[in-house]
Amino acid sequence: MENEFLSNTSIICYSDKEFEKSNFSAISEINLSEHPADVKWVNTYGIRFHESFKKVIQQNKLDDFLIKLLGDEEHPNKVIVLDNILFISIRVLLTKSNQLESEQIIFIVSADFLWSIQERKGDYFNWIRERLVGDKGIVRKKKTAYLLFLLLESIIDNYHETYQENAALNSDKLNSENIKPTPEFTSLVEKRKQELFNFKRATISLKDTIIKIEKIDIDGSDTKYFGELKEQTNNLISNIDFELQELESKINLIFSIQGHRLNEVMKTLTILSVIFIPLTFLAGIYGMNFVNIPELKSKNGYFLLLAVMAFVTVISVWYFKRKKWF
């Protein structure tokens, strides 16, 4: 298990003049207090290396409470301030998954190191590594708070990009001109609503975490950057809410179309019923088996009854036309 932990753990040390990326061959090499002038970004893929985490924490004399925190594999989003260390746990949507599954990401932050622990391999942080390698921007001139800001910004940007891609894909399918009151169309709308609810829940949870981080004061850390992240999450939530309202309007329109069609059917059936009720009444009267029905002896009784029925039908149709029922 220790070898697996080491193979899934790497470190990037950087300052405004230097950069070095390396791996570890032994846990004893993980010295987070060495070269305090440099910023150290340690990254681990996997959250089940409990014994290895414990050794790293103890040999670097970090807060023992981290052992308990890292022993729990399932955390809700939380921010905990320890002895000059910030523990951040968030659940991040895996946007490449069709089912929008989530993974646990943990950040352990101090003034001179940041340790990111990810549940699965692969992340959204390659552009940050490229900036560090190429000394682009100001990242190598800043401390761990700015690195944490970039990591969280990368997650939010990925949410934005995935949301916009999905919105573009669904815009044609769910276009107002293509609205059809069919189970297939309704299913598409409900599926999109569920995706948006997942995005909104994850974004709100991330926003709450950012607000907590913004209020924390740690020695050597500057949290002024996180106000921008809060605005980005607000914008994404606003976009999601706007699309949810549009989808709700489309569902209401579908129900209105279905109701209108049902009303048309019921109106047609009602008109036919009103026309044929008096005809049925007349046919029922003269279909009775009484001997003394005067009209039955009439030579032209049959034709007279047909004429009366035709007259009743014409009058009924004229009346409905006048009332604009059809």
TrEMBL record:
One of its GO terms (cellular component) is plasma membrane. InterPro entries: CorA_cytoplasmic_dom, CorA_TM1_TM2, MgTranspt_CorA/ZnTranspt_ZntB. It is found in: Cell membrane. One of its GO terms (molecular function) is magnesium ion binding. Pfam families: CorA. The keyword Heme does not apply. It catalyses: Mg(2+)(in) = Mg(2+)(out). Coiled coil: none annotated. Its main location: membrane. The chain crosses the membrane at residues 269-289, 301-320. Keywords: Cell membrane, Ion transport, Magnesium, Membrane, Transmembrane, Transmembrane helix, Transport. This is Divalent cation transport-related protein.
